[in-house]
Amino acid sequence: MIGLIDYGAGNLNSLLKAIRFLDYRAQLLSSPEPFPEIDRLIIPGVGSFRPALEELKRRELLPFIREWLEAGKPLLGICLGLQLLSQGSQEAPEIPGLAFFPGTCQKLQAPKVPHIGWNEVKILKDDPVFDGLPEKSYFYFVHSFALTEVSSSTLAITDYGTTFSSVVKSGRIYGCQFHPEKSGRPGLKFLKNWVEKC
Amino acid sequence: MLTVRIIPCLDMDDGFVVKGLRFRDLKKVGDPVSLARKYYLEGADEIVFLDVGATVKSRNTMIEVVKKISAEIFIPLTAGGGIKTAEDIRNLLLAGADKVSLGTAAVENPALITEAARRFGSQCVVISIDAARASHGWHVFTHGGQKDTGLDALDWARTVERLGAGEILLNSIDRDGTGAGYDLELLIKTGEAVKIPVIASGGGKELHHIEEAIIRGKADAVLLASAFHYGRLTIPQVKEFLRTKGVRVR
């Protein structure tokens, strides 16, 4: 069972629909009650850094996520969900992120921001999450900030004015800057791989 | 590098896809769910649904259609037509839309743009500008292209960007349904006026129209309705053609 962190914002519905379409079960988590059946967690995206962190704090979900990360259990951060796992963001420099992945998120330097649309994801390191996907695939992005640090955790990068990490991984914790639930068949494949192989 | 988006548009009236000429004479052309599915499988980058019916029943039907489509189609969906309040926006987003398109309501109540951007994020606020040539430049029209607001289209584009719009869906009323090609001058000037993405709409029929809108008009996306509904063009054909012209497509 997949637990979807519900912090009152984001695209929970789209994600839920994609998960159900793939025939997996999911449960929304808006408080840290114990759900023994949940063995994977998704932190979805859309929203801004500070309100998201504050809402996670208010719902007492932050300690729950921290414990999950420390236990090294499967987790996927999508879009803002990935950014929250970094050390912080230029969007709210005064508060730290969950600091699971190295680097901070910076505002994209491009003529048109937000970065909205389909962009190429270049795979740098092979990983089961990319099984069946070509080396260069297109995924759907909607964001203004990104993890511009390309570190040993970086699995794939994308260029939009700036090069940024579009997929990161450390242990069983993954993050993707694009929206797999809106990226058509490659996106569904990515989600399926994450659930079944990662 | 970002790709240029090819977006089929489904104008709907009470649950049916319809198409008219210069915003009039609506004809039924199909069922939205099966058309959306077909376009998704063919590689559409996004799908836009606009409710052109004026009734409450048509609005509610639209919500049901969005619910059905978003359960099986996993690309961005934009819904619009008749939205008046933030609550209307919320209902469409809850039904499964990723973005909403505001036209008349944005002109009548510009504060709605800011409220929507603040509550749901700029990324889901598409402002639809229906523009027609006037003695100087272009004027913004509302109410399905029937009312001249006297607003200058370029000024309005700058205003909506400032108020929090995430994208502009630019419709040329003069070209709508004519197949005479996009209004390139309008497209170029709007693109120069704002930094947010501009979607070209109205008049696209031939492959070279699409190429012009992208290469000369610098459109970030092109919207097509009749050309796809009547099978005159297909999405794979458009993308293949654009690739040969050096345009990046998915």
Walk me through the structure.
The complex is a heterodimer of chains A (198) and B (250). Chain A is an alpha/beta fold and 198 residues long. Chain A has helices spanning 12-21, 49-58, 62-70, 80-84, 184-197; strands at residues 2-5, 26-29, 40-43, 75-78, 105-107, 115-123, 136-143, 145-147, 154-160, 162-170, 173-176. Chain A is globular and about 45 Å long. Chain B is an alpha/beta fold and 250 residues long. Helices cover 38% and strands 28% of the residues of chain B. Chain B has an eight-stranded parallel barrel with strand order 1-4-5-6-7-10-11-12, surrounded by eight helices. The interface between A and B is medium-sized, with 33 and 28 residues.
SSE inventory with pairings:
The complex is a heterodimer of chains A (198) and B (250).
Chain A: E1 2-5, H1 12-21, E2 26-29, E3 40-43, H2 49-58, H3 62-70, E4 75-78, H4 80-84, E5 105-107, E6 115-123, E7 136-143, E8 145-147, E9 154-160, E10 162-170, E11 173-176, H5 184-197
Parallel strand pairs in A: 1-2, 1-3, 3-4, 4-11
Antiparallel strand pairs in A: 5-8, 6-7, 6-9, 9-10, 10-11
Chain B: E1 5-13, E2 16-21, E3 24-30, H1 32-42, E4 47-51, H2 56-70, E5 77-80, H3 86-95, E6 99-102, H4 104-108, H5 111-120, E7 125-133, E8 138-142, E9 147-152, H6 153-163, E10 167-172, H7 184-193, E11 198-201, H8 207-215, E12 221-224, H9 226-229, H10 235-244
What's the shape of chain A? globular
CATH class of chain A: Alpha Beta
Major sheet of chain A: order of its strands? 2-1-3-4-11-10-9-6-7
**CATH architectural name of chain A:** 3-Layer(aba) Sandwich
CATH structural fold name of chain B: TIM Barrel
Short description:
Chain A has 198 residues and is of the alpha/beta class. Chain A has five helices and eleven strands.
